[in-house]
Amino acid sequence: MSTQSNKGGRSLILVSVLSLLGFLLVWEALCRGGAVDPIFLPAPSQVLARAMSMSDQGALFYNVLASARRVMVGFLAAIVVAIPLGILLGTSRVARSVFDPIISFLRPLPSMSWIPLSLLWFGITETQKYSIVFMGSFVPALLYVMEATRSIDPLLVRAARNLGANRWQIMREVLFPGCLPQILSGMKIILGLSWTCVISAELVASKEGLGFMIMNGKEFFQTDTVVLGMVLISFTVLVTDLCLRLLERWILAWQR
């Protein structure tokens, strides 16, 4: 049974690879045949050539690393604050009534709306980029943790209380492990949102990063650079998502 499942999985992977190759071949053929003007959409071969050129100059790795660093710092800062606060708000009606108006105010604000204030507060600095990622990721992460905490079976909490556990022990030994699978699933979505935030910040005010690379390519009509930046964003998000999945499998080994 497992052998058939493995064969089925490999077949699906092969279909996905062939689908991607077919898409790239059609794209290349349309560009080379003159159906698409390269100034509007360059061929994959042009994008690859631009990637090789920027790799030789060292600019490609530098821009990817700059954006990835900003995302991870802002994302991790948001998670460190959101998890304990979310568990508290998910279990305490008093705390929830205190913070609900603030969350309701912050929730609809997109990350772009924080850029003018962050520039006034921090200037064009790394801290400004971190703050944009933090503000764009914190509230969604907080809401995920709150909902995950509120989904825990109350019987488990009452059982822990009957066994003499205090509030801190209940949060640490019952609530946090119980909602961890949902939290980790939500964090993968929040990580993609963090990338959206950092690209928005880099498009407006930055001297390096993938958002800067895209904007710079647009200014000089280098559409191959623009497309390359877009491809690298998708690729980097896929890699970080894979790392999160591996971390999830390691942390939640007990689930299997």
TrEMBL record:
<feature type="transmembrane region" description="Helical">
    <location>
        <begin position="71"/>
        <end position="90"/>
    </location>
</feature>
<feature type="transmembrane region" description="Helical">
    <location>
        <begin position="102"/>
        <end position="124"/>
    </location>
</feature>
<feature type="transmembrane region" description="Helical">
    <location>
        <begin position="226"/>
        <end position="247"/>
    </location>
</feature>
<comment type="similarity">
    <text>Belongs to the binding-protein-dependent transport system permease family.</text>
</comment>
<feature type="domain" description="ABC transmembrane type-1">
    <location>
        <begin position="64"/>
        <end position="244"/>
    </location>
</feature>
<keyword id="KW-0813">Transport</keyword>
<dbReference type="InterPro" id="IPR035906">
    <property type="entry name" value="MetI-like_sf"/>
</dbReference>
<protein>
    <submittedName>
        <fullName>ABC transporter permease</fullName>
    </submittedName>
</protein>
<dbReference type="InterPro" id="IPR000515">
    <property type="entry name" value="MetI-like"/>
</dbReference>
<keyword id="KW-1003">Cell membrane</keyword>
<keyword id="KW-0812">Transmembrane</keyword>
<dbReference type="GO" id="GO:0005886">
    <property type="term" value="C:plasma membrane"/>
</dbReference>
<dbReference type="Pfam" id="PF00528">
    <property type="entry name" value="BPD_transp_1"/>
</dbReference>
<dbReference type="GO" id="GO:0042918">
    <property type="term" value="P:alkanesulfonate transmembrane transport"/>
</dbReference>
<keyword id="KW-1133">Transmembrane helix</keyword>
<keyword id="KW-0472">Membrane</keyword>
